[in-house]
């Protein structure tokens, strides 16, 4: 874990190019939650629930919006004002939290879309600017101590 990202995390590049797959949870294909889960498991040892079968289509906001309400309590409560490398980035669509990325440092988010698969994208790019709801670490199951978002 590092301070507010001055450089891109060395792990970020190994996740670029993973195809988008609704419900996917590995390198053969993943959706935004699957990508976040993969990074947190592999890089930080934090295992999130699979959520298998909890939604049929990751790009159907009516299906995914309720999951965001359920999952945000797993994250570290109030969003950080300054993102730290490894933080979950909650992204709004239509004013509602429906997309996730991982803060990779230096102003970049690692995320995946149907159109691009997994990419590093600058937070100030036109299609992300103004849509970031917040940056979150994650609590361990047995404590209220955030695993991510600490220096």
Our Rg estimate from Cα atoms comes to 14 Å
> Helix proportion of residues, in percent?
10-25%
Query: What sequence of helices (H) and strands (E) makes up the elements?
Result: EEHHEEEEE
Cross-sheet strand order for the largest sheet: 6-5-4-3-7
The number of helical runs is: 2
How many strands? 7
| Beta-strand fraction estimate | 15-25%
Unreliable stretches: none
User: Main sheet, how many strands, which sense, barrel?
Assistant: 5 strands, antiparallel
General shape: globular
- The mean pLDDT is 82
What is the CA–CA distance across the termini? Answer: 6 Å
Estimated structural class: alpha+beta
Describe the structure.
The chain has helices at residues 32-44, 61-71, and strands at 25-26, 29-30, 88-93, 96-105, 108-113, 117-122, 132-136. It is of the alpha+beta class. The chain contains two helices and seven strands; from the N terminus they run ββααβββββ. The strands form two sheets. Strands 6-5-4-3-7 form a five-stranded antiparallel beta sheet. Strands 1-2 form a two-stranded antiparallel sheet. β4 (96-105) and β5 (108-113) form a beta hairpin. The relative contact order is 0.23.
Which helices and strands appear, and what pairs or packs with what?
Layout: E1 25-26, E2 29-30, H1 32-44, H2 61-71, E3 88-93, E4 96-105, E5 108-113, E6 117-122, E7 132-136
Antiparallel strand pairs: 1-2, 3-4, 3-7, 4-5, 5-6
């Amino acid at each position: 874990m590092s301070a507010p990202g001055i450089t891109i995390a060395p792990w970020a590049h190994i996740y670029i190019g993973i195809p988008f797959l609704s419900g996917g949870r590995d390198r053969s294909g993943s959706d935004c939650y699957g990508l976040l889960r993969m990074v947190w498991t592999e890089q930080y040892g934090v295992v999130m629930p699979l959520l298998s079968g909890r939604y049929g289509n990751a790009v159907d906001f009516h299906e995914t919006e309720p999951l965001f309400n359920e999952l945000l309590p797993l994250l570290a409560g109030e969003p950080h004002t300054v993102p730290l490398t490894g933080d979950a980035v909650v992204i709004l669509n239509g004013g509602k939290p429906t997309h996730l990325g991982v803060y990779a440092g230096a102003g970049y988010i690692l995320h995946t879309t149907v159109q691009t698969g997994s990419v590093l994208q600058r937070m100030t790019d036109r299609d992300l600017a103004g849509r970031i709801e917040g940056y979150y670490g994650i609590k361990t199951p047995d404590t209220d101590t955030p695993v991510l978002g600490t220096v």
